[in-house]
Design goal:
35% strand, 11-stranded mixed beta sheet, Aminopeptidase, 6 helices, 23% helix, alpha+beta, single chain
């Protein structure tokens, strides 16, 4: 029986083993998401990833391996390392009460295109349109358009990750993200699961997360690979 701590150390691996098993692909012992949903993978043995990375690269041009520890091995004839993103994991310690003044709505599949366009406007490059299927999304509308969202990404029987925290550049500094994160966190707690999130080290949003009751717990590295043509 794996503990919560075990699962937090390898969140992609255990998400694909539990809640997101329906999105699971496996090559040579390495687990990956269906690339139409998400381009993440995870491993249990960093010395045995080369064949799997080559196999996955045949169906997606770029992707991440996510790990707390270990440097994945690759076949440099088939893939190249684009960069390593130094990230960190945060978990909720105690939710700080936050006043909700905006009308936060549950987003449906009718909003998929709006979600996709907003994320690609602010954080282009990696979000898949079917990423909406990974969890629940909430949003704030202004002037009849979606201007701020939060979503859910990796999930197990024990935790749910807050992700997709995006606000249109014309609507920042209004407290929308803070209220959405607080709302999403409460919804996760209703499911009796631990809210977590991932971000880059040094992200200026980290103090906001801390004010909401999240704490830094561990490093989480994101290895971005690209298929060689």
């Amino acid at each position: 029986m794996k503990t919560l701590e075990d699962k937090l150390k390898n969140p992609v691996w255990y998400s694909l083993n539990e809640t997101h098993q329906k999105f699971h692909l496996e090559f040579d012992g390495v687990r990956f998401y269906n690339p139409e949903i998400c381009n993440f993978g995870a491993f249990s043995d960093a010395t045995k990833t080369a064949k799997a990375v080559t196999a996955y690269a045949k169906i997606v041009d770029s992707f991440f391996l996510v790990s707390e520890n270990g440097v994945p091995t690759i076949d440099t004839n088939t893939v190249s390392l684009v960069k390593k993103i130094d990230g960190c994991q945060m978990v909720l310690e105690n939710l700080v009460t936050t006043e909700i003044t905006e009308n936060i709505v549950l987003l449906t599949d009718e909003s998929i295109d709006e979600i996709y366009d907003l994320i690609w406007l602010v954080m282009p490059g990696f979000y898949r349109k079917r990423g909406f299927e990974m969890g629940t999304y909430f949003g704030i509308y202004k002037d009849n358009k979606l201007v701020s969202i939060t979503g859910q990404r990796m999930q197990t029987d024990d935790f749910i990750e807050v992700s997709g925290v995006v606000t249109h550049p014309k609507y920042t500094r209004k407290g929308y993200a803070k209220q959405l994160i607080a709302h999403t966190t409460k919804e996760i707690l209703k499911e009796k699961k631990l809210p977590i999130l991932h971000t880059n080290k040094g992200n200026p949003a980290i103090p906001l997360y801390e004010k909401l009751g999240y704490k830094l717990t561990r490093d989480m590295n994101w290895w971005l690979f690209r298929r060689k043509i």
